[in-house]
Amino acid sequence: MTSFGKVFQVMSRDRFRTINKIILVELAVIAGTLLWSVATRGIQSGEFFGATMSWSVPALFAAIILMSVANEHVYTRDTYRLIPIGETKLYTTNLLSSLLMFLYFSVIQVVLYAITSTIDAKFLSSLFADLMNPHYPLGEAIKIVIGLELMGLALVILSWTTISLVHLVVSATNNFLPNVSRRAVDTVLYIVVIYLVVRVAAFIFHEFNNLSGMMSAGMQTQFIVNIVGILVVAAIEAVINVVLLKKWVETIPN
Amino acid sequence: MKFDDKVPIYYQIKNYLYHEMMTGQLKPGDKLPAVRQLAVDLTVNVNTVQRALGEMITENILESKRGKGNFVTTDEQRITQLKEHLVMEQLERVYEQLHALNLTDEQIIDSLKRFIAQRGQQDD
Amino acid sequence: MTNVLTINQLTYKHNLKTILNDIDLTLETGKIVGLLGENGAGKTTLMRLITGSAKGAGTITVCGDSVTAHHKGHVSFTEQLRGFKSNTRVDRVANFYRLVYPDFDGQRFEELVTFLQIDTSLKLGALSKGMKEKVVIALTLARQTQLYLLDEPFSGIDSMSRKKIISSIIKWKPADATMVISDHYVSEIAPILDEVVIVKDQTIYAHKASDAIREEFGIGIEAYYESLYEGGVSHD
């Protein structure tokens, strides 16, 4: 049996490289934006931080999507499925690898924010002043940030397990349905997925709209319950995914 | 070496080794290449080589020395016997085919003599 | 002699079409077995079922273990490296193998690379078909396992590469390991086969020792195989 560490190592190598590429592109685009500003109208107050903030959003989505692609890649390739390791271990290693690489990406983003905000010292202090004054003390602000981070991470995990679930269900049903009903099942699944995506999006909007309300003591518990709820759903999906992998999901033939 | 797919491979390996011995490529007392090396040289399966060598050991053509490998027998008599056997085997085939053409024994001997004489002239 | 592989009542359906139906097959240790059959007969599927890459109904026992997930440690299969990007260098692929397969023997791999004249600094996407197959063979044989499954290692490659691959099979197959080689073109590999297994009509149509075929019918493996498809040789 292959150890968890070694499988983690081979899975993470390529993902690490992918994340680094995203970061490089992100930095290049930020630099380009700033240069453009210098050339046209000069750098405004807060622009370093602003450019980094706004470009880190598409970079974030790119990271989530590319890690998800890497995830799904593993389930149907013999290169990974033939490794002498159980399906549960394979699945969790895979998810963990993506998650840690995503965390690495997030840390880099935070570092970028820190650097650019130092450059924009004046701008940021006024921003914080806005944020903290008059409603919250600093401690509350940090709580909000951490809470949002955790919520974001939980949602990323949920989106990965959901994508896997759909992928694996489609892959599993494709093996034993004739071509005609296969298309029908695929259609039904797509509808279900679209419905789920809409529901989750609605939930996220709801959460964020409630941001101010959340900070009142009573809602904080609600917020944590929501995070736990998301993780529980993700865990259930993960268990189903492992069962699908064990029993039905085949690799792409030679 | 090219094999005839219709004839058992182990049998062809034996014939190949006999041939090597008759032509002096393999002399009495010579060590044979390792089984796997023979298999690689002949592009055949190790098990098939093993079977061929096994039969040759039972026939006392080869001698297996533990841990050292397989050697061609030093028993000259056994080698002479083998040569005789191989010659007879070839002649048997010719004889049967000529017989099938309704040649008598005398006619066969005569044809053989004529053939050898002609061949000798050709070769000169 | 012990058995490396025992298959009992194995059935496999794909999209409601039966590919393999109620198969029984036993392979002994230390053999080279030719798995023959037309394209689409189910040769690849049979190998994939053994590794667990395809899921069927029935029992497959490898080295006495019938849990499919456990087969992976005993079986080395010529997977086509689909999990790698085409810009991955061959030596990186080898590193991957070294890490994830505890039975991967780096020394053996180096020997195979030298013998097969592989340039490990090349990227996967830059390899010719013959060279890619050589890489796959080197990776597969560098593992020290009990059962090797070579899926059509000779399809579409030049005869020099083919000869090299055949030699490397003879050279590097561990004495106590069994090797299954699937092919639909027999004559090249006929001399190295101990046994042939012929897949036809969704089942194991015949399973015989090669030399037994030559002795029994006085014909070659290829002729025998073709005759089964033409219905020439009466078969019990």
From TrEMBL, chain A:
Keyword DNA damage attached: no
TM segment ranges: 21-39, 51-70, 91-115, 141-166, 187-205, 225-245
Keywords: Membrane, Transmembrane, Transmembrane helix
Name listed for the protein in its UniProt record: ABC transporter permease
Source species taxonomy: Bacteria, Bacillati, Bacillota, Bacilli, Lactobacillales
UniProtKB/TrEMBL annotation, chain B:
HTH gntR-type domain mapped to chain residues: 7-75
Superkingdom of source: Bacteria
SUPFAM superfamilies hit by this protein: Winged helix' DNA-binding domain
Keyword Manganese: no
UniProt KW keywords: DNA-binding, Transcription, Transcription regulation
PANTHER family: GNTR-FAMILY TRANSCRIPTIONAL REGULATOR (PTHR38445:SF6), HTH-TYPE TRANSCRIPTIONAL REPRESSOR YTRA (PTHR38445)
Protein name, as recorded: GntR family transcriptional regulator
Organism, as annotated: Levilactobacillus angrenensis
TrEMBL record, chain C:
UniProt keywords, alphabetically: ATP-binding, Nucleotide-binding
Keyword field contains Repressor: no
Molecular function GO terms recorded: ATP binding
Entry-linked SUPFAM superfamilies: P-loop containing nucleoside triphosphate hydrolases
Chain ranges of the ABC transporter domain: 5-226
PROSITE patterns linked to this entry: ABC_TRANSPORTER_2
InterPro entries given in the database record: AAA+_ATPase, ABC_transporter-like_ATP-bd, P-loop_NTPase
Organism per entry: Levilactobacillus angrenensis
PANTHER family registered for this protein in UniProt: ABC TRANSPORTER, ATP-BINDING PROTEIN, SKFA PEPTIDE EXPORT ATP-BINDING PROTEIN SKFE
Protein name: ATP-binding cassette domain-containing protein
SMART domains the UniProt entry points to: AAA (SM00382)
